[in-house]
Design brief:
The complex is a heterodimer of chains A (583) and B (467). Chain A is α+β, with helices and mostly antiparallel strands. Chain A has 16 helices and 26 strands. In chain A, a hairpin with a 2-residue loop joins strand 15 and strand 16. In chain B, helix 2 packs parallel to helix 3. The chains are: A alpha+beta (583), B alpha/beta (467).
Chain lengths: 583, 467
């Protein structure tokens, strides 16, 4: 047992710590504040405290635990709310009320809940790390596949069916005369990526229900995306929409250094909202980490790794996981603060020089993999990280380092947000390198997707160029063809890209509907061009009733859209033929 | 601050004094970040804070600088206590300085307890999502940037803009619809001029709100370090009233720019590595630990709503102070010098302003069913008008088409009829929405894309149909 030698903010130096290891968890002082050893020097250990150090004294005890920072893995994770160190916030609320006391502890997995375990292997079977030995119905949507902990192997000596807590023995494993007990729960050190058999390329669309993502800048399962944006550009709402509607098996939301009230709002809404595909409550497929901005800074650093470790555990069961981190900038700031205290040589803007490698060590845990163990299965983790660049200036280090790693960028634009165009994702600045990856997926569902998408993006690009001319000569001075182009791109922007997160129908748009919507607008463009060629003016085209009807496509329920599109197309064809001038 | 006068420990020799830092031999028993006394040879006592403690040395930052400290005879005394505020329901009606000492000449009250001024973080799982609309009677706020209980909504202003008047108007008029509940106001004045402080006090007195108010006043001439504790004291008082006495507390903090300047000053004296523009890298977290104290919880009645005021240096919204604040708060009300020059009060820039909690607080049963639609459509129409205004400065308004001219005129009407109102005019939210509808009636009906058809039927003024 050691004692405090020095306190400087979250940095603590402890004496008499011989025998400790780097990254070992320690408990500090009377209250038992959690800290993590980040360096050793002879008898002294350099500790970063994961909680506020106010009021600590030199000489107070520092107690090693012999364990490095690990996550508890087992049934009971789904639907839970954790802080950055995987302490259950619901358990703490029950124990000590609405405010968090320092040094308070709570276990991640409840120890008294009984889970119904059904074995899928039998006594005498040879198993090794990653093999599925049985299942537990964890929630209505998640079947928890209990795996042999990585690194273990042997013959099943005994396996029990029935209801067990996470700490009770469910099977005995015999390996060279040694018998080990298997439980529903296991642990894994959070900073160490869980291994897999083989890595695959991302594939298949991660359906988000957001048109600008799914159709224009698609995200693939196993991909990595960054969402940078200044304040008020709707980063958090975009992230929330992602975890709400993403059609993955399990979503993990890491709220890292962000607002408490918004977190409360998410937590609350996930207890009411239903998944559009299964009709079950969203909390049946979500895990939350809430380390809000007023909670200890250093725990932010851990929260991201705790989140991704849980993601890997479920990936290893063969599930597709989406992990969103809001915001990675706050995470980077926590690193900067610690780096400063350690008097490390700072890199750009005071961030530590290892910022880039730390960011990639997080994002690289995304991917589509062939999991270890039998039966053979594939799982994926897709990561979307929000970035909060100071002054909305994307040249800052966190944004730039992130862009070097991710393959999709959803760039949030302040001027769009000021016009209340949401999601404020800029179509000129964003990109996705997964367009080719998902094109096979799209073409099967919506033939002609690649072409329509490119046509739409090209029109928007032309609009941006025309816009400069308009600013000089005014909209009235443009030729009719250009005026029509502006009318159509406006429709693309307002009637297709704009999407309300708060409208009961529009909040989630299936890919089929998105495709029909854009195709209807493109069809309108063809029709209107034909009318212009026949001598009509843009003003006349604009006043056609179909223009208004197109603007209301958003409100059409997902399943009614094919019929609605057909109706609009018929109407447009009629408009062209009946309006033929009598020459 | 009221702690036992029994000093537990006194330092040995002071080894170094420079800037505002004293390095002394280790003081046994000193707590990290505790407030200590520095006793000078002539008996004068200065306050300081232990910012780095170890078995070899104790580093103390002295508030107000190290002048007159000598290494031989000055001593550091510690109490083994961190800064605490004595709290009680009797806080109401009282005025304190930035260290929590009464300055109104009234004797001290009997405290119910002492609270750590840093508070304890709210458990995110215990937070009740804010959803109660506060009617401020100001159209640009109620209609477009609604404030709800438990929110933190700052005012981003510039020097010379009427932020004080607007806040005074909010204090005068704010009420939750159809309810009369226990409310209180806590004012934290940080590094303000005497005039600013007395403006608020006079205003509170005139409206009779003074007895429902607790004020913590740190004027520009008071020690800089007290600017760090002033807002924390204010929030501690607010928390006590909200969580122990079930009150709905509105906390006004002015001017947070002074707070951030003080933070930078102290940080550079500590020789910390600076981040943008010399502000410390932890400024985001530091501000967040205060602003995040706003909110509501499931198991208590009261609420803490925070309205900080900050002046943007050079009206620059990307300056680190407004920038970091915007990342923490649930929106912002931004004042515009342009509108102010046009004579519009309140000069609220509705594009840059935003309330993130708005959607939770409006709609049927809270304000009116059409509120959200009206809000969206007003923005869209005004944005179009402002865009055309920009174009028309180059090509002239005459060269615009008929439809565009309508939008151009609408933007001006929106400013003069919707945004503008009297300093003592209180509009109900229904009145605010009706003004918006009147403005919509001048627009082409097919352009009202963002409003549900049934609302158009119900609320759009009918007389226009005759044309």
């Amino acid at each position: 047992m050691g004692k405090i030698w020095r306190v400087s903010g979250p940095l603590i130096v402890a004496d008499d710590m011989r025998g400790s290891q780097v990254y070992e968890i320690v408990h500090i002082g009377e209250e038992g504040i959690v800290g993590e050893i980040i360096g050793l020097e002879e008898d002294k250990a350099i500790v970063q405290a994961h909680e506020d150090t106010l009021g600590l004294k030199v000489g107070e005890v520092v107690e090693g635990t012999g364990k490095i920072l690990s996550a508890e893995l087992g049934p009971g994770l789904v639907g839970s709310i954790y802080d950055g160190l995987q302490k259950s916030l619901l358990a703490m609320a029950e124990d000590m009320g609405s405010f968090l006391k320092r040094g308070a502890r709570a276990l991640a997995l409840p120890r008294d809940t009984k889970w119904q375990f059904t074995p899928v292997v039998k006594a005498g079977d040879m198993v090794s790390g990653g093999d599925i030995i049985g299942t537990v119905p964890e929630t209505e949507l998640i079947e928890h596949r209990v795996m042999v902990p990585l690194g273990m192997r042997g013959k099943i000596k005994e396996i029990r069916e029935g209801s067990y807590t996470v700490e009770e023995t469910i099977a005995l494993l015999e390996d060279g005369g040694e018998v080990r007990e298997l439980r529903l729960m296991q642990e894994w050190p959070v900073r160490k990526p869980r291994p897999y058999k083989q890595r695959h390329d991302p594939s298949g669309l991660l359906t988000t229900g957001m048109r600008i993502l799914d159709y224009m800048f698609p995200l693939a399962l196993g991909g990595k995306a960054a969402i940078p944006g200044g304040f008020g550009t709707g980063k958090t709402v975009t992230m929330q929409q992602l975890v709400r509607w993403a059609q993955t098996d399990l979503n993990i939301y890491v709220g890292c250094g962000e607002r408490g009230n918004e977190m409360a709002d998410v937590l609350y809404s996930f207890r009411q909202l239903k998944d559009p595909n299964t009709g079950k409550l969203l909390k049946e497929k979500e895990i939350f980490i809430a380390n809000t901005s007023n909670m200890p800074v250093v725990a932010r650093e851990a929260s991201i790794f705790v989140g991704v470790t849980m993601a890997e555990y479920y990936r290893d069961m063969g599930y597709d996981i989406l992990l969103v981190a809001d915001s990675t900038s706050r995470w980077a700031e926590a690193m900067r603060e610690m780096g400063g205290r350690l008097e490390e040589m700072p890199g750009e803007e005071g961030f530590p020089s290892y910022l880039g490698s730390r960011l990639s060590s997080f994002y690289e845990r995304a991917g589509m993999v062939e999991c270890l163990g039998s039966p053979g299965r594939k799982g994926s983790i897709t990561i979307a990280g929000a970035v909060s660049p100071p002054g909305a200036d994307f040249s800052e280090p966190v944004t730039q380092n992130t862009l070097r790693i991710v393959d999709a960028l959803y760039s949030l634009d302040v001027s769009l947000a000021n016009k209340r165009h949401f999601p404020a994702i800029s179509w000129l600045m964003s990109y996705s390198l997964y367009a080719d990856t998902v094109s096979a997926w799209w073409e099967k569902l919506d033939p002609g997707w690649a072409e329509t998408r490119m046509a739409g993006l090209k029109l928007l690009q032309q609009e941006a160029e025309l816009e400069e001319i308009v600013r000089l000569v005014g909209p009235e001075a443009l030729p009719e063809g250009d005026k029509l182009l502006l009318l159509v791109t406006r429709m693309i922007r307002e009637d297709f890209l704009q999407q309300s997160a708060y409208h009961e129908v529009d909040t989630y748009c299936v890919p089929v509907k998105a495709g029909l919507m854009l195709k209807t607008i493109m069809k309108f463009y063809d029709m209107a061009t034909e009318m212009l060629n026949a001598g009509k003016s843009v003003a006349e085209v604009r006043s056609l009733p179909v223009v208004y009807k197109i603007s209301r496509m958003k409100d059409v329920p997902n399943d009614k859209m094919p019929a609605k599109a057909k109706e609009l197309w018929v109407e447009m064809e009629k408009a062209v033929t009946t309006d033929k001038p009598v020459s | 601050m009221e702690v036992s006068s029994l000093y537990v420990k006194e330092s040995g020799a002071i080894k170094r004094a420079k800037g505002s830092l004293l390095v002394a031999e280790s003081i046994p028993g000193v707590k990290f970040n505790e407030v200590v006394d520095v006793r000078l040879a002539n008996g004068e006592i200065k306050s300081g804070q232990a910012i780095d403690i170890s078995a070899e040395a104790t580093v103390v930052q002295v508030f107000g600088g190290v002048s007159e400290v000598d290494l031989a005879d000055s001593k550091i005394r510690c109490k083994g206590e961190t800064l605490k505020l004595p709290v009680s329901g009797d806080l109401l009606g009282r005025i304190f300085n930035g260290m929590g000492k009464p300055i109104d000449g009234v004797p001290a009250f009997v405290p119910e307890g002492y609270m750590d001024i840093n508070g304890e973080p709210m458990n995110p799982a215990s937070r009740r999502p804010p959803s109660e609309f506060i009617e401020t009677g100001i159209s640009a706020i109620d209609g477009l940037n609604a404030l709800v209980r438990g929110q933190k909504l700052p005012i981003f202003s510039g020097s010379g803009l009427p932020h004080n008047q607007i806040v005074a108007q909010v204090i005068r008029q704010a009420a939750v619809k159809g309810k009369a509940e226990k409310f209180a106001i806590v004012l934290g004045a940080i590094g303000v001029s005497y005039d600013d402080a007395s403006f608020f006090m006079k205003n509170l007195e005139e409206t009779g709100a003074l007895e429902r108010t607790v004020a913590f006043i740190n004027t520009a001439s008071d020690p800089v370090i007290e600017r760090i504790s002033t807002p924390r004291l204010a929030l501690t008082a607010a928390e006590h009233l909200a969580w122990q006495h079930g009150m709905h507390v509105l906390v006004i903090l002015t001017d947070m720019t002074n707070y951030c300047e003080a933070l930078r000053e102290l940080s550079s004296m500590r020789e910390e590595i600076p981040s943008r523009r010399g502000y410390p890298g932890y400024m985001y977290t530091d501000l967040a630990t205060m602003y995040e104290r706003a909110g509501r919880v499931f198991d208590k009645e009261g609420s803490v709503t925070i309205m900080p005021i900050l002046t943007m240096p050079d009206d620059d919204i990307t300056h680190p102070i407004p920038d970091l604040t915007g990342y923490i708060t649930e929106g912002q009300v931004v004042l515009s010098r342009n509108l102010e020059r046009k004579g519009i009060y309140p000069p609220i820039d509705v594009f840059l302003s935003l309330s993130r909690m708005m959607k939770e607080g409006i709609g049927e049963g809270k304000t009116r069913e059409d509120h959200n639609n009206v809000f969206m459509q007003s923005y869209a129409a005004y944005a179009e008008g402002c865009y055309l205004r920009e174009i028309s400065t180059i090509i002239g308004a005459e060269s615009l088409g008929e439809r565009d001219k309508v939008y151009l005129a609408n933007a001006s009407d929106f400013e003069s009829k919707f945004i503008a109102q009297g300093e003592f005019e209180k509009r109900t939210v229904e009145e605010t929405l009706d003004i918006a509808w009147k403005l919509f009636s001048a627009l082409p009906k097919e352009d009202l894309k963002l409003i549900k058809e049934e609302f158009i039927e119900r609320y759009l003024p009918k007389q226009e149909a005759s044309s």
